[in-house]
From TrEMBL:
Stated family: Belongs to the PstS family.
NCBIfam families: 3a0107s03 (TIGR00975)
UniProt keywords, alphabetically: Phosphate transport, Transport
Residue ranges annotated for the PBP domain, each copy included: 44-336
Protein name from the UniProt record: Phosphate-binding protein
Annotated source species: Streptomyces millisiae
Alphabetical list of InterPro entries matching this protein: ABC_phos-bd_PstS (IPR005673), PBP_domain (IPR024370), Phosphate-bind_PstS (IPR050962)
Gene from which this protein is expressed: pstS
PROSITE patterns: PROKAR_LIPOPROTEIN (PS51257)
Region (Disordered), start-end ranges: 210-230
Amino acid sequence: MKLRLGAVALTGALALTGCGSDDNSRLPGALDFSLDHLRCGPGGTLLASGSSAQANAMEVWVNTYQTNCAGSQVNYKATGSGAGVQEFLQGNTAFAGSDTPLSEAEIEESRAVCRDGGRAVNLPMVAGPIAVGYNLPGVDDLVLDAETLALVFDSRITRWNDPAIQRLNPDTELPDRPITPFHRSDGSGTTENFTGFLHAAAPDAWPHEPDKAWRGRGGQAADGSSGLVGQVQQSPGSIAYFELSYAHRNDIATARLDTGAGRPVAATVEHAERAVAEARVVGRGGDLALELDYTATADDAYPIVLVTYEIVCDRGNEPESLALTRAFLRFTASDEGQRALAEIDYAPIADRIIDQVRERVDALA
């Protein structure tokens, strides 16, 4: 079956935007891939919410599934990881998207929602680089490192021509302009991953523990990745962090990262894949939570990455939504679902991990 996504992108964008707060629907119009088969579940409506980092991936997945599976509707609200996890733990959604795995305490809490002795499990479904986007007229190529980023976002480097930035960009004329760093105001897995990188790669410069809530000093806040994008676009001298897909869809320049490798590394899908490929499964008992190495220094490995998990009960799911949940997640983890990601600036999950995800999805009860 031939499916041209460009023809249906507007419909999916409206469906996602209508029930979410993160509108980033400027997907490429030429997305086009064939589906030989798609195992549809029963008709009905599936409610889910969470990570805005995966909003563009979810838009493609929802469009594809709904186009091929008549009578099925998937409503995903990109409310942010923190809000999505909370809604799931309150029993309001079939699954949640989160850019960090559930804590042990949250897994224990999930036992009240997952019936028949079940509990929530973390299923890694999509990965990608967190880009550092900036608006600095006249500067099209910018190199930063972990320590400098930490000091900028902690409001201890405050001007673009600071000697620390100039040393990393010796051939660039940096303006004597104030730096305006923006961070997320909502509970965000992107924030937790970004600050996890700062804390691991520059612990002296970033003493704050990684958290979904922003712990740095100063700066300005905006809601959601799209809120940060809007602020960077309209604020010369600004800098923020968001998923690469947001930067590309909105034509925002992104910094290269000096990791100590042979050359600075750009935020690309390929470079993120090199970093994510080294992740270790640290979850137990069917849980597939991963541990990332934020201090990777291999050539062409971009270490500011995140993995988005779909969080679902391993058993004890609502009977009315179980079959549709299983069918939709089976598609997102399929070869076709994963192959679509690279075309919209996401990284597919490594084969050795996604094979385990498929086994867990098939076993949902």
